[in-house]
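We examine the record.

___
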Amino acid sequence: MKSIKINVKGRVQGVGFRMAIKNYCDDNAIKGFVRNLNNGGVEIAVQCGEMALDKFVKWLKENQGFSKVENLRVEEIEEENFNGFEIRRNGNFFMDQGKAVSNLGRKLLKS
């Protein structure tokens, strides 16, 4: 088992990216979490085997749904004991979604 952190940049907030990641990880027995970052990116921490990791990173690069992955940075982290996969929110649901939509708007205006 390997524990890694992935920072994703691009159009990844306000487009269902975190839910797509959660669904993929639940379907593939990958443990960890995903959360939005204040800079408009997304942080993913996962624990899985090497083959599952390669498959997951390839899947991320395929730009699921309305998302557009521009950059991935992968780094190994100390092994953690995750109890499944979760979406970690910044504050309550409405604050989290408001920030995501705001970051999406900024991203679209820059395009």
User: Anything to note?
Assistant: Helices lie at 17-27, 50-61, 93-110. The first strand starts at residue 2 and ends at 11.
